[in-house]
Amino acid sequence: MFGKNNKTPLPPKKKEEIPYVKEGIKFKDWKAKNGSGHKWRTIRWTVLIGINLLFVLSFMFDLSLLEGSLSGSRLFGFYLMDPFNSLQMLIISAYSGHIKLLTMNFIIGFATIFIFYFLMGGRTFCSWICPYHFLAEWGEKLHNYLVKKKKIKEHTYNIYLRYVFWVGFLVLAFVTQQLVFEDVNPVGILSRAMIYGPGLVLLWILALITFEIVYSKRFWCRYVCPVGATWSMVGKLSPFGVKFDLDKCAHCLDCQKVCLVPHELWFVEKGKATDKRHDVGSDCTRCGLCIDACPGNALSYTIKGWDKIL
Amino acid sequence: MDKSDHELNRRQFLKSSAIAVGALAAVGAGVGYLQKVTAENRINQKFLRPPGAIDESTFIYGCIKCGLCVQICPIQAIKLAGIKDGLAYGTPYIDVREQACDFSCDSMQCVETCPTAVLYFKQFKDEGEKAIEKYDKTHERNADYNPFPVQILAMKSIVKMGMAEVKKDSCLAFQGKGFKGTPRGSNFKGVNRSPYTGDAKATPVSEKVYDEKICDICVKECPIGETAIVMADNGHGNMVPEVLSGCTGCGVCVMVCPTEEPSIIVEPIKS
Lengths: 310, 271
Hints:
The complex is a heterodimer of chains A (310) and B (271).
Chain A: H1 19-23, H2 27-34, H3 39-60, E1 66-69, E2 72-75, E3 78-81, H4 83-96, H5 104-120, H6 124-128, H7 131-148, H8 161-176, H9 180-184, H10 186-196, H11 202-214, H12 219-224, H13 226-234, E4 240-245, H14 254-258, E5 277-279, H15 289-293, E6 299-303, H16 306-309
Antiparallel strand pairs in A: 1-2, 2-3, 4-5, 4-6
Chain B: H1 3-43, H2 56-62, H3 68-72, E1 78-80, E2 92-94, H4 109-113, H5 122-138, H6 148-157, E3 162-166, E4 179-181, E5 191-192, E6 203-204, E7 210-212, H7 217-221, E8 229-233, E9 239-243, H8 252-256, E10 264-268
Antiparallel strand pairs in B: 1-2, 3-10, 4-7, 5-6, 8-9
Helix pairs in contact in B: 5-6
């Protein structure tokens, strides 16, 4: 479908080409030998908690490091703006004439964050910064456990649904002349709750996470969130990403099991890869779970174009 | 993937898209409804917006709820509204009875920091520059050259958060009464930079002690001065506070009013 190219797959690897066969050991031993740590997950959670803590501490102790919240902030006095908020704002204000009043800081903030996440891979924001992601990641674990125990059934939808929501929320913003999405945006709500103190609006977050745990895995992040959808589009041509090296792969599918967006790792299945090397698509959150999980180091972070030169 | 799979996928997508569009329409209708029923309340809001706020009916769409104005205010006068305020959730307001805006920052930084210009800074900047130009014409650039006070005064004077209103029934001055002591008690947390005591920085209201024959604390503490509020004869021989057109609606008078319920309130600007 959309993400995949229409090339014919390479023929499946012969037995002697499988990494552990090459090394002359059994699959189990090979897996044990290379082990699977939680290096990137530890780093990522540290960054996620650190950034959000920096927001909280900046306000609590008046530190002027990272002021504001995730919908708009100042890093050492330098503005950063949430892209979907900015888009809504542009659409509303273009209609009402307020666009002439928008500050240079708004434009700087919008452009900066756009360029930064273009370089860093778009949805990198989701797994490395977003506080709702952190909750949902634990929710996903719980959900998987419940599915495994056969307590609940899995419900999946088409991931392109989120573009329907993306357009829909922009249309809503235009029609109602309100930043409608910001009223239901768990990123902003959680960020504000942490920085300025909690409120009743957290019940909405509770409802969302409960729905994700008992009904559909990562429902908000996968099928609704227009912030993620924006990042996904920003990250389409990002240089920073995860690459896949077919020669090192033993098709154990451990990476797909841990992946937060498994459809992006379609090429790890036996006989699916069309090239010796694949770069994951724009839905990838660059979380690094697959890199931690892969026993053959077939998956690794890369800067497209650069790794050939270096 | 064969053709029937494609067809099935397409159908599923269309089905869930239809649900999504339905959900969005529901949200839209909900917002539209809230907008209608709360519009009156929002215009007649009980709380004040920070200085420089654009028209209330349009303020709400432009505020991205980032809270930068909350963070930059040195006296924490600005707060974010809760969910009970409906669509105004997350937008900034000033509760003047608890902590009024006393302009002690001397720079309108809450307005300047607003990235979406719903707190509109350019008007203040222009006014300040005009004042400096005027000052330049009458002052030599010598050691005493300091246009800053006139600049900030000019900026302050065009703030229009609301308009103060004296409640004659409960105001002490209208009853010819004086006031002795600390207006809001010793546990009150609010601060202001008092023109009365002449402090350089904002100090707690709870530290201030008054002894007035006729209560005129609101007049003495007003950061704008005699263009905003004065003591005037009410025609019955009583000197009472009178609000003038220079009032910015900053609410310091409300904060320092010693009566149980404030005898002076600020009505937000309705445009």
